[in-house]
Amino acid sequence: MKLTKSLALGASVALGGVGGASAADLPVKAKAIEYVKVCSLYGPGFYYIPGTDTCIQLGGYLRAEAAIGSNVDWIAPDSGAAGARNRLSNYYTIRSREGLTVDTRTASEYGVVRTFFNAAFSWTTGSYGGNGAAPGSTVYAPLGGGGTVAPASAPQNANPGAVAGGSLGVYYAFIQFAGFTMGKAVSQFSTPWVNYPANNFDGLPGGGGSITGVSQFTYTAQFGNGVSAAISAQDQVAYTTTSIWNVSLAANAGLLAGTYGASDIGGTRSPDIVGMVRVDQAWGLFQASVAAHDNHAAYYGGGALAGTEPNGYPADKWGWAGQLALSIKNIPTGAGDSINIQGVYTNGASRYNFQDLMATSYAMYGGTSLPGAYQSLGIGGVSDAVFVNGSGMELTTTYGFRGGFNHNWNPYWNSSLYGAWAAVRYNGTAKSYICGAMVTSALLSSGLAGCNPDFNYAVVGVTTGWTPVKNLTFSADLAYIMLDQKYAAGSTVAQTANSASVAKPAALYELKDQSAFTLLLRAQRNW
């Protein structure tokens, strides 16, 4: 009997276990899978984010390039070690860069809500520069980072944000809603081609820039038929201020490097106010832009109270800039060919001509046939305003243009011609300040009569590209840069001390126009 009960109990436990296992293995109804769907509302490449009504597009590029003769990637050899043209200058600089864009859009009762983000991860080779602390020696000078480090540290610089070559640049990060643009975007003053009417070269004057974006609050009105207008308040600190020079504090070394005084820019008081009107049609584009720029200095220097409140300061002065631009598409030379041109005039707002990727102090060395001179030197300096202790600011005037012609030979080959020219002009009072410093500090041989800090700056170039596969392009861009200084012919300046940073000795230098070539070789894959 006990045996029978034991068998019955064991059987029930076993059956219970089997029954439990079978229940666990029964199929459970799965949730519906949300597949990614194409979003055709905003053009190709957009997809709905699963579970939302927001569309997203991912894009970017990978670029590898070598700049020859520029000393850094990819601007003119017109200052510093590049302008010195000696054993401290780089014959080549190499950069690899990955760009990433994220574009999201959502339809709403107020129109499309858009966010846009663009960043670039870069690695740029460094160089060796003169060691000011120990003349006759050099230090490793990483590009894309601050300071100098020993050569042994260079391999560690692959980390973005470290002291050298590796870097992360946030170019655009903005929200658009109901006609408003809030965040970091291209200036409303700039044209759609920004710095590149037909080129890869970063150093063209003759118009507004901010290719890497400027913080702004903008309202844009669309009037239909391709007509729009915008009003914008944009940050002036990073991109649209050159220099406010206190010439009373000018030093010999600075004057011979195109820096005509000590920088004396005060804190922010007003953003730049920008207005723009644009007509965008099938035939091309016309645009007119204006900008107002507040020049706000800090305090006068010199004396026991140098740079402090009791020393006083020059009153603010507003500068301005105006620009006209024209693009003509599908011209008779071929399908897809275009011409882009623009012209600009500034007074106290020089960055709207000498855009933010350019240097604003120039010192280019060359040969000389003048007896007694060691070498020749071309100098020039761009400012928004200059003053001396106790005076008001004198605004600097500039004007210029740039343009380009783009031609497609066939679906695989294209070429472009481009050029730019810009002038810097100081008024009589500003010249008296600068020339007084030049004569007394830099020992200008021609005296006040032959002193003229005005100059012209020009670039011409040609670009050719080959696209064997869609979105993969190999290109070469050759640029010729000219610095036309206005000091009297045959004038000389005396450099009174050796310069370790550019390895130039204390000597007599002939003031003379200068020029240079630079070449960019690039491979780029867009996606």
From TrEMBL:
Please name one Pfam family that this protein belongs to: Porin_2
Q: How does it sit in the membrane?
A: Multi-pass membrane protein
Q: Does the keyword Signal apply?
A: yes
Highest taxon of source: Bacteria
BP term (GO), one:
monoatomic ion transport
Q: Which family does this protein fall into?
A: Belongs to the alphaproteobacteria porin family.
**Protein name, please?**
Porin
Its ancestry begins with: Bacteria, Pseudomonadati, Pseudomonadota, Alphaproteobacteria, Hyphomicrobiales
